[in-house]
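Q: Hi! First time doing this. I have a protein sequence and I read that you can turn it into a structure. Is that right? Here it is:
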Amino acid sequence: MEGLTAPPAWETKTQRTLDAVKAAMAGNTERVFTAHWTEHAVRDLLLDLVGDKCWYCETLILRADVNVDHFRPKSEVLDVPGHQGYWWLAYEVSNYRIACKHCNSGGARFDGVPEGRAKGSQFPLLAGTRARDPQDKLKLEQPLFLDPARRGDPELIGFDTSGHARRSHAPYSLAEAKGGVCRAEETIRILALNDSRIITQRSSLMREVTMLARLLGADPEVQQVINDKVGPEAPWSSAAATALALQRACDQHIAVPAQPSTGSAGTAAIDPNRSYVDLRDLLQHLNPDDLAAGIALTGAHNKKVHHAVLDSDGWINIGKRPYRNPTTAARAVSGNRQIDGWTFWRLTIAGVQQTLADFRAKHVPPNTPA
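A: Yes, that's right. Below is the predicted 3D structure, encoded as structure tokens:
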């Protein structure tokens, strides 16, 4: 997004509108944000970057309205009382992202059931000081959302061979550990990036790319087909690129990095940062037979008890949905956007019920992010 500027005539027009917004705020009257961002003068600049596809879920946007999303919401911030939105960024091209209707305003489905989630005016912070007026520094904010236009953020999303979006193997940041949340999993949950229909399409694409690379990759014409599928303008190109990288790794016999052991206590080093975000390093303190069968987790919210199962790989399974992070799992099942999954979920060990937070406190070494 650096260096992308709108035509002077568009900027002049939007400045007049922004001046009217500021005057309305000064007079305590209703603000009106004219939707200049829908005009071709600026929207086409964004579409030229990666084509007619959503920057969040990478689905092609065909025969439908292209939404220009404000990464930082312009008129309000959900769950932040009194915040008037990032109104001064309403006409900043650098704050725009191309989004499909489902990512922008909802409608995604899983197994036929509406997900009911979308970005909308949500803009939670992982850490830092939230900006409230033009004088505040945006660099002091650490957004929870992954930003498709920010260097490094897209690499935090990976894909398994069944087409599900997952967090990549990158280490958790200190801010994630302190907050006990995973940026990638929260982004996947809020944007419903594992909509059933997308999973099916991603999986089919990944199988196709794998087959082409394995059987016919040396053919120049086939290689061009592969290049087209992993190119930035192609739908779900990140998943296609993952499949291609996996196949090439297999062809070159590249060893997959070993995962931490989940054997008996004391046999595996605990990564404090990861242990404050997911459960994998703590599995060694659970009975292997219980894990093989699946350990029941329960959590109560608004007088309703929710159920999940912790498996031997450290996934928290809710129906057909697996989650690494307890907080994302709790928010997905309860609908509460601010709940802490570590205190929400409870498990029973040797007849004693305890929260995941209690369980973690007994086994994570001292001097860890708290």
